[in-house]
Write a structure and sequence with these properties.
Keywords: ATP-binding, Kinase, Nucleotide-binding, Transferase. Belongs to the guanylate kinase family. One of its GO terms (cellular component) is cytosol. The protein has a domain of about 180 residues: P-loop containing nucleotide triphosphate hydrolases (Rossmann fold). Helix content is about 25%, strand content about 35%. The chain has 9 helices and 23 strands. It has about 400 residues and is α/β, with parallel strands linked by helices. Bound molecules: guanosine-5'-diphosphate (GDP) and adenosine-5'-diphosphate (ADP). Guanosine-5'-diphosphate binds next to strand 14, strand 15 and helix 6.
């Protein structure tokens, strides 16, 4: 707190209004919300990601907040539009799927993090047009067949589903590969990363630490796929309480005897580990059936039948290959644009200077935002209004 700012207050006050770019060489923009002015942009130390500093007018000092989420990488310019609890950031000259970001300043997640850390917190979340398919959370006791069912689904629909690769402190089994089945890690490293906010959820299961990193879920979304998470009941509860909207499925064994048989026949655990897993299974099944966490309970008696039922509840029955996934719609934002806001509509006035200079409008509707940090902000809608040569003629169509 109170550290020397990369930019002086006077520079900011002279150089920029809300959302306009500063002209001091490094690409920065500002947004003022209440007493706080957020300076967002490239750090002067050559860091490649977009940094955030806050000038708190009520204290008269600069604050360097704790920044959660994956930071966007630098670009040729930024525009900022303050919304109620977050700031919309438009990146100029970036790839189409990397143009819309949100800097959360007072969302539920940010307030929760502030409470834990006792510091000022902001969080990044990438914006997604429309509603991407919800991730699928699969839980159930050890040996019930979660991994088998997930493999079958991914084999049948390889381009549709992507697996969230968890971190774990347990040792790899014979055929397991680091980075594919799990990120095998050390307890001290994982605990440090948990403190740094890199995990969407984590839990101690059968004596080891397991967790889903925000990055694991984002990598699947980046590949345009629907994310599958294989996590325990505690993890499912944490995800349920987070902003990640998902479908929650609990897999039950037909009987405890059959569960024990499957675990023993799998032959991957020592006797001691098998007994620990069986002891934990009772409580997991009870919680899975009785808690309000799960949307569906599937009994995995006959494997093929269970696979079919899983496909049915994911809307995939009858498909030989996966139905086309409605990929992210991309908006084309030219380098030159100006931004304004009317109610819940962000008006982006694009200027493209070709042979004949033309202008067009893109209207981003932010009235139905869903999700957010840690993870994507979904539910953005947009409308493009055709080229016109002067003024803001098209704007009448908005209000
Ligand atoms: N909370 C949480 N649980 C996980 C995660 N990854 C795996 N698990 C759960 O940890 C438990 C043990 O997993 P694993 O060691 O692979 O054994 P298995 O279930 O017998 O195959 C299972 O209930 C998994 O669903 C994670 O990232 N977070
Ligand atoms: N419906 C089923 N009937 C019989 N064996 C099964 C069934 N589903 C899974 N299995 C077997 O049970 C063992 C445990 O399955 P696995 O997918 O590893 O469970 P989990 O991931 O839930 O720990 C594996 O050897 C698998 O082949």
């Amino acid at each position: 707190m109170g550290e020397a700012p990369a930019l002086l207050v006077d520079d900011v006050q002279d150089g920029a209004l809300n959302g306009l770019e500063l002209k001091n060489g490094t690409c920065k923009t500002t947004a003022t919300v209440g007493d706080k002015m957020y300076v967002i942009g490239g750090a002067d130390d050559g860091t490649l990601s977009i940094e955030v500093q806050i000038f708190d007018g009520s204290l008269g000092e600069w604050v360097r907040p704790t920044v959660r989420g994956t930071k966007p990488v630098l670009c040729n310019g930024l525009s900022a539009v303050p919304l109620e609890d977050r700031i919309l950031i438009l990146k100029k000259g970036s790839k189409p799927d990397d143009r819309i970001w949100f800097l959360e300043i007072d969302t539920q997640y940010v307030r929760q993090q502030q409470k834990i850390l006792g510091t000022e917190v902001v969080a990044w979340s990438k914006g997604v047009i429309g509603n991407a398919e919800k991730p699928v959370v699969i839980s159930g006791p050890s040996g019930v067949g979660k991994g088998t069912l997930i493999s079958m689904l991914m084999k049948e629909f390889p381009s549709m589903f992507g697996f969230s690769v968890s971190h774990t402190t347990r040792a790899p089994r014979g055929i397991e590969k680091d980075g594919v089945h799990y990120h095998f890690t050390e307890k001290s490293i994982m605990e440090k990363e948990i403190k740094e906010g890199k995990f969407l959820e984590f839990a101690s299961v059968h004596g080891n630490l397991y967790g889903t990193s925000v990055e694991a879920v984002e990598l699947v979304a980046d590949a345009g796929k629907r994310c599958i998470l294989d996590i325990d009941v505690q993890g499912a509860r944490s995800v349920r309480a987070s902003t990640l909207e998902a479908i929650f499925i609990f897999i039950c064994p037909p009987s405890m005897e059959e569960l024990e048989k499957r675990l023993r026949d799998r032959g991957t655990e020592t006797e001691e580990q098998i007994l620990k897993r069986l002891r934990n299974a009772d409580a997991e099944i009870e919680q899975g059936k009785s808690s309000q966490i799960f949307d569906f309970i599937l009994y995995n008696d006959n494997l093929e039948e269970c696979h079919e039922r899983l496909k049915k509840l994911l809307g995939l029955d009858g498909f030989v290959t996966a139905p086309p996934i409605s990929g992210p719609i991309e908006i084309d934002l030219p380098m030159d644009h100006s931004v304004s806001k009317i109610d819940n509509k962000i008006i982006i006035n694009c200027i493209s200077s070709g042979e004949k200079e033309s202008k067009n409008l893109v209207i981003l509707d932010v009235s139905s935002l869903k999700g957010g940090a840690p993870g994507r902000t979904r539910g953005l809608n947009f409308q493009a209004i055709g080229s016109f040569s002067n003024g803001l003629n098209g704007i009448d169509q908005l209000s």
